[in-house]
Amino acid sequence: MSTTSGGRPLTTMQDRLNYLFETVRPVGKPRYSVREVAEAIKRDQGFDISAAYINYICTGERENPGVQQVRALACFFGVPASFLLGDGDQSQIARELEQLRAAVRFKEKLQAADDAMNDPCVRVIAMKARGLSPSHLKLVSAMLDQVREIEGLP
Amino acid sequence: MRAREIRRYEQLLRRLDITIPVPFDARTFSEHIADKRGRPIHILPMDTSDATAPCGLWLATAKADYVVVDNRAPAVLREHILLHELAHLLCDHRGRLRLDAADLSFDFLDPAMVERVLGRTSHYPDAQEREAEGVASVISRFAARRSPVPRPRDDADERTAALDRVSSALAADRSWKT
To answer: Which end of chain A, N or C, is less surrounded by CB atoms within 10 Å?
Structure first.
């Protein structure tokens, strides 16, 4: 059994799929809709899965989905199928999902700052170190806060 | 770094006509750059020790340039980071505030998914990083050759700092052109 970094247990298939919906989301949107996921699976994997079927797993109505369905969903969310099945040590994958979640939030913050600072006047910075950790993201956030304060931005 | 690149970076610095202070001091150097460009440069000392390695950041807005320098890194590294970020600014590197899939590396998550979520990877910043690193090291070499006394190792060391100020007053600042 795995847990989220917040300590929430991921006991069931329902928990794990919902967790993937929460952590793997596109920038600027709260989550993928089940319809988007079904369409992407059809398009990218050539596999038919209905939005309703995915929804049944999310609501817990279907506790034991088919192997192919599990594989297709895992593939869409970019995790090994074993994660959805609850097999093995999943803490490392959960940690990466949390990093991804932080990165998506951070990117939204960057875009908001970009707008506030009147793009295209804002130019870049490249980070010196490769591989952004959550602490890097925190650092850039803190920098943006200081800059906004100095410039008297909201 | 190849000789051709070194020459190119030296030409760039000559063209910009930036004064390199003697003895070298990165902060004074940044003030010269700010004067030359007519835009203030704010140096923001921050604790970056949470990050995996000390790092620097540069951000330019319509009004000013901001450079973050780790205030806990050893003085030599801190100076190098500041120079590296100033080099970005001198080279007029630009782009948008960005974070994309290339900035993150995962062991388990599928890179295609990460790219879909965070946006497509763009490669130009690597070239900019190399250029900034090259310019920074050309400046350091120049500074090392012309420095009459060793730079203070630590800001807290008042005596060496005072000595440095005195020698700075004695030796006229040297332009890159000379």
So the answer is: C
Locate the chain A residue with the closest alpha carbon to B47: A139
Higher pLDDT, B167 or B37: B37
Question: Is B106 within 8 Å of A100 when comparing Cβ atoms?
Answer: yes
Amino acid, res. B28: T
pLDDT at A13: 95
Q: Measured between alpha carbons, how far is residue A106 from residues A109, A111, A116, B75 in Å?
A: 5, 9, 15, 30
Q: Chain B contact for A59, CB < 8 A?
A: no
Dihedral, CA of residue B145, residue B150, residue B153 and residue B155, to nearest 10:
-100
User: Cβ contacts (< 8 Å) between A119 and chain B: which residues?
Assistant: 96
CA distances from residue B158 to A59, B113, B164, B167 in whole angstroms, order as listed: 67, 53, 10, 14
Structure ipTM over 0.90, yes or no: no
Query: In CATH, what number is assigned to the domain containing residue A90?
Result: 1.10.260.40
User: Binning pLDDT at 50, 70 and 90, where does residue B153 land?
Assistant: very low
Which phi and psi angles does A68 have, rounded to 5°?
A: -65, -35
Q: Where are the domains of chain B?
A: 3-97+126-175
- Residue in B with minimal Cα distance to A116: B61
